[in-house]
Structure formats: C-alpha cells, structure tokens
Amino acid sequence: MECAVVIHTEEEFDWNGGFNRFNDNVSHHTQFTTTVKQLLDIGAKVTLALDYAFINSPQGRQAIEELVGLASPNIEFASHLHPWVTPPYSESDSEGNVDEYHSFAGNLARDLEFDKLKTLTDAIEALTHHAPTTYLAGRYGIGENTYEILHALGYKTDISPSAFSDFTSMGGPDFSSTTNGHYVKQGIEVFPHNSAFLSVVGPLANYLNKKPELFTRIQSSTPLKLLSKIARVKKLRFSPEGVPIYELKRIYSRLQQTGHQHLILSLHSSSLKSGLTPYSTGNTAADIGESTVEIMTWLLNNNKVIPSLVSEFSRLEKANND
Ligand SMILES: [Zn+2]
C-alpha cells in the first residue's frame, strides 16, 4: 500500500465565519515547515496542496522558498483552490464577501473557475519552478467543468473527492456513494481523500466500505440505525484532525483488508499551530503535528506502507470510468 501525506496548505480563517477575500492571514509558517521537515526526516513523502493566499503572503512564500531550497524529491507542490481568496474576484461583493454556494469553485461559471485556477497554477509554477500536476479543490468542490479545466491546464491527477461525504446541504458535491477506490474521469486520474467505516462487526465494516449505499439506507431506517449503533458503526476521516491515533490505526487496517492501494493522510497546515482551527483549539486539542509524525512513523515501521507522493501513486493501466 502506498501512502501520501497531503497537507492543505492555506491561510487562516474562521471556519464557521463565512468567506471573505480579505481573510488571508498566515502566521503558522514556522510550525508548518517544522512538521514538513520532521516528516521528511522519518522517510515520509509530502504532497503540499498550496493555495493562493498562502503563497501570496510573505510568510507563506518564505516557507515554500525554504522547502524548495531543500530540493527534496520527497516533496510535491500541488494546487489547492480556495476561490474566495484567489483573483479574479468577480463573484465577491463590495466588502469582499462570497456566499457559501460560490465557495465551491465547481459552482462558479466555467471561465471564472478556469481563470482562478490559472492564476493559482501560474503562481505555484513561478514560486516552485514546477508546474503542479495534482489538484485539490477547496472544500472538495469539484463541478461539471472542473475536469475539462484541469486537462486544459496540464493537470494529471485530482484528489478532491472525499469518500463517503455529502456536501449538498452546503451547496457542494455529493460523494456519499464514492468509495476510496481510484478511477479515471475525462483523462484525469482521481484518488479520493480517504475515510473508512469502522465497526466491531468486521464483515459489516468491509461491506460498508465497498457498498456505502447501505449506510444511506441505515440512516433512513430507525431499526437499522439501532442495529448499526449496537455494531458501533462509525465513519472516520483518515486524518489526525479530531481522530485519535488508535482510530487511525483501525482505519489503516480496515482499508488494508478491503484491498485499498493508495492511502491519503490529510490535514490542514493551519491545524499545526494551536488555536487556529477547530482541531487545534480547546483543552482536548491534540498537537496535530506530533500526531501526524506519530501515525506516519507507525505506518512506515515494518513496511506497512510505501511512502509516496500523490504524483507517484501507481496508475491505472487503461481503465476509464468516463
Ligand atoms: Zn482548504
């Protein structure tokens, strides 16, 4: 099994405070570079999905220049589009506010989504001397034009889908029937962000991870819901954010048992400094950097996983699920 650490490398903002183009502060750059270097030291490989506000800030720029200077083959610079802080800003009002629907780039008009992603792509290439080939939509927000745009801008891979997640209540995409498996869409290879169903009844968990439609049925039936509670069914993201180490180990084991090939451990750069995201705030907040290094150390020990960049994930031969 190949495993990539994917860091959503982005500005700090109040995750429950709406979207505004002027919320572009970056103050966690030191904690960010420290964690990336620790991960490299233990032999992990890190795909940094960079957003425009981060690399356009002096602090973020300095952090990336430092990592570019390492010339490490174990870092990949990918792109992460937060459309509300990426020019052109034609969808924001006079105070810079963007409504939730338009915080999903895939909901923008085709040319605006294209222009924003081109701005970001060019900025990443100018800073890292490398055109990004891996894409991650902010808020997992791909839309009907996204793959055509990715193709036009030279991208090869998308990691935006989030297995088993439904964002339709916020105006975003529905991935509730998307599993962790990878596929090809319009010439772009797609590796979803990983989540897993866990249960004390192993075969039930395995079934849910392959056929998540059952979970939707469970949700709409009181007796099934009760049974799933007894079987302690839960759905967890493969991320150190809000998920303790012992649960991350269970997720790994479950995905391994279902024959999963490509593991994405994801987190946000801003979680690496305490107090900046819901995961790093409050008395019970974990040190996300320490947790990330700890779980990666465990995964790399005894060759449970092969460290990989997203761009290095083994490819499908000819399959195409267009
Ligand atoms: Zn983001």
Task: Please tag this protein with its features.
single chain; alpha/beta; 7-stranded beta/alpha barrel; nine-stranded mixed sheet; two-stranded antiparallel ribbon
Helix content class: 25-40%
DSSP, total strands: 13
Order of helices and strands: EEHEHHEEHEHEEEEHHHEHEHE
Q: Find the CATH topology.
A: 7-stranded beta/alpha barrel
**CATH level-four homologous superfamily name:** Glycoside hydrolase 38, N terminal domain
Tell me what you see in this structure.
Helices cover 33% and strands 16% of the residues. The protein is an alpha/beta fold. The protein has a single domain, classed as Glycoside hydrolase 38, N terminal domain (7-stranded beta/alpha barrel), CATH 3.20.110. The strands form three sheets. Strands 1, 3, 4, 6, 7, 8, 9, 12 and 13 form a nine-stranded mixed sheet that branches. The two termini are 25 Å apart. Bound molecules: zinc ion. Zinc ion binds next to loops.
Q: How are the elements arranged and paired?
A:
Blueprint: E1 2-9, E2 19-20, H1 29-41, E3 46-50, H2 52-56, H3 58-69, E4 75-81, E5 97-98, H4 110-128, E6 134-137, H5 146-152, E7 157-158, E8 183-185, E9 188-190, E10 195-198, H6 202-210, H7 213-219, H8 222-230, E11 234-237, H9 245-257, E12 262-268, H10 288-300, E13 306-307
Helix pairs in contact: 1-3, 1-10, 9-10
Bound molecules: zinc ion.
